[in-house]
């Protein structure tokens, strides 16, 4: 009898030789990207009433959000087979790097006359919140094993 637990989910039966589901990182990326683009689309539409600088600010905020949050699932995909403590350190380090890059970008763009900084912030907040909700939903649905026993081929 096989005592290795297999996680359930949409792709539980399609595994490669290592026991991992192909494309989980891409599914998590898409699960965060689509809600973020939808939320930031609403912010861009709302910015139209405030003029060109507001629209440019909302678009810059959207690009910053997608660039910052899109890197995470792709980087952690390559660190999946490391020890849990090292994976945690990589996740925290990646988070600190993203927050630092966003802070520097926001500081550099805060004095730009060609965009409205308030709309940059609104787009970042809307995109980040919806990205995290979408990614949390997908993680719960996919039931991705982060730590523990690897699934062995039958």
Describe the structure.
The chain has 154 residues and is mainly alpha-helical. The chain has one domain. Helix content is 68%, strand content 0%. The chain is built from 4 helices and no strands. It has helices at 24-48, 52-78, 84-109, 117-142. The radius of gyration is 19 Å and the shape is flat.
- Output the radius of gyration: 19 Å
Compute the number of strand runs: 0
- What is the count of distinct domains? 1
Please give the count of helices.
Answer: 4
User: SSE order, as H and E?
Assistant: HHHH
Main sheet overview = none
Distance between the termini: 11 Å
Uncertain residue ranges: 1-19
Structure, briefly:
With 154 residues, the chain is mainly α. Helices cover 68% and strands 0% of the residues. Residues 1-19 have low confidence and may be disordered.
List the helices and strands and how they pair.
Blueprint: H1 24-48, H2 52-78, H3 84-109, H4 117-142
Helix pairs in contact: 1-2, 1-4, 2-3, 2-4
């Amino acid at each position: 009898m096989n005592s290795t637990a297999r996680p359930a989910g949409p792709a539980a039966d399609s595994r490669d030789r290592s026991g991992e589901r192909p494309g989980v990182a891409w599914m998590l990326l898409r699960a965060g990207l689509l809600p973020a683009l939808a939320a930031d689309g609403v912010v861009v539409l709302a910015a139209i009433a405030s003029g060109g600088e507001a629209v440019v600010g909302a678009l810059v905020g959207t690009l910053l959000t997608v660039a910052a949050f899109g890197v995470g699932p792709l980087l952690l995909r390559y660190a999946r087979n490391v020890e849990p403590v090292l994976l945690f350190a990589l996740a925290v380090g990646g988070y600190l790097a993203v927050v630092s890059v966003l802070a520097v970008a926001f500081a550099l763009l805060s004095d730009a006359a060609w965009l409205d900084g308030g709309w940059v912030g609104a787009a970042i907040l809307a995109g980040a919140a919806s990205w995290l909700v979408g990614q949390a939903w997908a993680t719960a649905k996919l039931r991705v094993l982060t730590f523990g026993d690897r699934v062995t081929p039958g």
